[in-house]
Each structure stands twice: as structure tokens, then as C-alpha cells.
User: Fold this.
Amino acid sequence: MSETSPKPTIAMDDLMALCKRRGFIYQASEIYGGIQGFWDYGPLGAQLKKNLRDAWWQDVVMNPCQGMAGPDGNPVRIVPVDTCIIQNPKVWEASGHVAGFNDPMVDCRESKARYRADHLMCLGEKGDTSGQIYAYVDNDDKSYATARKKLDKYKKRALSDAEIDTCPLTSLSADELKVTVGPDASEAGTLTEPRAFNLMFDTYPGPIRDEANKAYLRPETAQGIFINFKNVIDTTRVKVPFGIAQTGKAFRNEVTPRNFTFRSREFEQMEVEFFCHPSEAKDWYAFWRDWRMSWWKSLGLAGDNLILREHDKDELAHYAKEGAGTSDVEYRFPFTAPRFGELEGIAHRSNFDLKAHQNHPASTVKLEYFDQERNERYLPDCIEPSAGLDRGVLASLCEAYTPDESRPSKVFMKFHPRLAPIKAAVFPLVNKDGMPEVGEKLAADLRKRFGHLGAIEFDPKQNIGKRYARMDEAGCPFCFTIDGDSLTDQTVTVRERDTLAQERVSLDRAAAYVAEKLGLG
RNA sequence: GCGGGUGUAGCUCAGUGGUAGAGCGUCACGUUGCCAACGUGAAUGUCGGCGGUUCGAAUCCGCUCACCCGCUCCA
Assistant:
């Protein structure tokens, strides 16, 4: 990993100040002191985020893989869904989230170590209900030996195995915990009571707030796809291999929200679950991994700040253990540098999820797919490219932030034109002599043509330098200026954000100019 | 969860117990007319919040909230 970046690492504080100043991102509930792990998007941020989501929707769902054929030589097929944030809680039992997202943790005030409560065992002398208890990490011989040694020292004699009683830490009473010595502690009573880190948010649909009515806010959008797999198969004409895609909010009660919007408790995902025959899973995995990497590059996250990283075996998620692997598309954020933070994970989930839902006791549905061509019934394997929309936005903001002492704004946002929240601006050089009228008409024309892609600004106030500078900070790629000559020869000056170059184009060519620069031909 | 830091106008920050400030930005008017120019003027604050000490608190004390950094944690 290279420690040197071709671009100086920007200060996160400066970027955050710009995001506030220009209306990209605000702290959620700011007027009440904020709320940890939540962020709101302002006018420019909302459009930036929409543009990234739309780019994904277009390139992944509507024109899958930008028209590139899959490894089988056929066009890639994807259909969209939009599923609920709240589902029957059994969905999350089957998926493993209820068990996996509820690990009670224990902290040690002395050693500062944190343990999973269900990984801690305790030992003491058989029959002794008043003496000290010693905790150790389950299946850790060294930790066990340490606890035995501490007990022997406390009892002032070597106890035999037969004199030892063990039990899980979670079975101890509060009083017993007070006389328990932590695995890495010397004093008793330094362990906190086991605390559940509820990584899923609870909610209670219906009038009665009762455990029987407990439901969860989804921690990932993926399960909404898996539980609709049969519906999609039955009601559309898709055939394996194909993908189901959706974007939407997900919620995780992160222990430590950090780093601006990077680890938020409420965030938006863009996910595809791509189903294929197990024999083709490896090829599809490699295909998606490589194409997703190139997609992020195509949106301006090029260069050394973006890497594709294959997971080591020991960091694979529970659903990916059996699969062909997991890769991350990672971006070098200022706060991770020189290391990288995940933008998107491409995982081979094998048939983990379909199997889990099919096998859940409360589920009656058969999810096997009958493949006519192969004359074979099977549970498809699944390749999951799962991207973080908010992380993509954050990476785009970081990448776009370009200090430039030579220009009045001292900084400009070099967004890819496709992502830029303001597509173009129109300025009358002087707010009189017929220039505003010409400008307003041009702005209206551009709005009609490009308004669905982003804002078209019209600004007749103050001197031209200020207006250019404002657009630089907003990341607007093109500014059209109407001057005296425009009235006579029907031409305008277009000023390019990145190069500051000015070019004279005819008024009726202005829309074509923007279309070409946006890649719309 | 632990340790350190920060919190005053939209942004950056000054203000160590005595009337709430500056620069920039924003807005208006004038002038100018291709890069935050110039002139005049204006708006904008629960000094993060709550409580305490004090005749008097942005300032001292306690608690709390949020953000940043380092741990820890994170399928």
C-alpha cells in the first residue's frame, strides 16, 4: 500500500465546513443538539445523493452493467423491487440477524478489555459460594490456565480438576459478578454486567407495546429481496441467471458512529442479489467484482484512492463462508488514510439466504428454482454487490474537494458532471440592458431539457466573480454568461469549472454543449 | 465503553467574572462590468444544553449532549 497519494490529503474539518456552508450535509436534529450517528442532506446534498442513486439505477437496473454482456455471453438481466423497512421479525431470525446482532458484551474497567459475554466462562471451587470467581475466555487454554492459577493463589493451594466448578458467565447473579475477577484483571468486580448491543433497532407495530409485537428496522435491504425471490420468479418472466435490485434505507445501531457520515445509524444501500447456477457462481462473482470496480471509477473515483480488495478467509461474513469469496471496493478517505474504507462489498453468499428462509420452521415456501434448460431443480447461488449510497456520496465529496489558492473560492468541488447537483448556471454579465431576459430564457430552456438531472441556476446579482466562485464551491461544471454581444450575435461565453477556460458558443447550441459534456450525445 | 480535544453569527475564530465581537459569507442600494472588485447600509446569537457558585457567568464548578482524534467495537 502506497503511503503517498498523488493528491494531498484534505482536512476532513474543511470538507465538513464546506458541506455545511454550501448545504450538502447538516447534522441531524442540529437545533436540538444533534443526535449521534444521524445526518441530514441539504439542498445540494440531496440532489448529489439522488444523482448517484440514479446513476446506479440506470447503469445497474435499467441498462444492466451498461450493456456489457455477462460471463455467459448474454445480456445481464436485472429487475427492481422496493420492499419494506419493517418485515415479519422471523425474516431476521432466519437470516441470522437476531442471533448475530444481539451479542451481549462485557467490559472490564480494569483492563479496558471488552468480551462477548457468551464467550466467557467462570470457574471456582466446587461448593464454595462465598469465594472469588474467576472468568476466562472459553476455548482459550491460556486464559483458562491463568484463571486456575489465580484461583490457586487465592485459595493458597493447588486445586485438582475434580474440585473445580465451571459455568457460563451469563449464568452469574449480580452479586456473583461483584466477586468475579476478569480474564485480564487482578481485582474482583471490574466486569460490567453483560450489556446487549442491540445492533438492530426495535419497534412495535400496533397499539400494544408488547414483546409479542416486536419488530425490527431492517439492518440490510438484501433480505427484502430474498423473501420476494419466489414472487419475482412467479410473476415475471425472469430466468436464472438474473438479479433483483433495490435501493433503500437500512438501520444499524452502531456501537461507535464515527467519521462524518461514514458509519451512520441510518443509511442507504444499493443492492443487487444476483442468482445463478452454483457451477457459474465463480464466474459471476468475478464479473460483478470487476465491473463494480470499473463503475465507481467511471464516476470519478479514479486513481490511487480507489482499490479492490479481496477478503482474507478469516474475515468472511457468516453468509459468505462457503462461497467463492468477498471483495470490497474501498476508498481512501481522509480519515482512513493511508488505509481504505469500504464503499461496496461484492460477496458470494452461495445459497445461504434462500436456504435459511426455506428451512425456517415458520416458512412453508419451497424456494428451489426449476431450470428448464438444465432440467434441474436447485437453490441458486447468490452474488451480492452491496453498495453504500451515503458512503459513495461521501467519497465523491472527498474526491471532488480540490483546494486551489489561485481562485477566489480557494477551493472547488470537482464533481463528475453526472453527479454534480447543479448542472449549469446562467449569468447575465450585467443585470440590465436586456441581458437578464436572455439569461432567463436560456435558463428556462436548459431547465426543461436537464432539470430532471439537476438544478439549473439563474443568478443576476452581484459581480460575475462572486457568482463563478459560488458555483465553484457548489461544483457546478458549466457557467453560461450573457454579455452585450449576446444580444447582437446570439452567442454566450461558457466557462468550464475545472480549467477556467472560456469558450464562445451560440445561444442555440448551449443545450447541445451541456448534453455533450454530460455524455448524453 | 475508555482516554484526549473541541463547542461563541451561515463559515473561520477572538473574547479569563462587568453592555456579545471581528473577518469572510448573506441581503439591499449605488458604481463597475468576465473571476469572492469598490462604496454605503442591513439582517443574523437559547455563547451546545441543564443546574450550581456569584451582586453579576460566554468566562468558575458539576452534570449532560454533539462533533473530532486515539483505543475498543463493528457479519
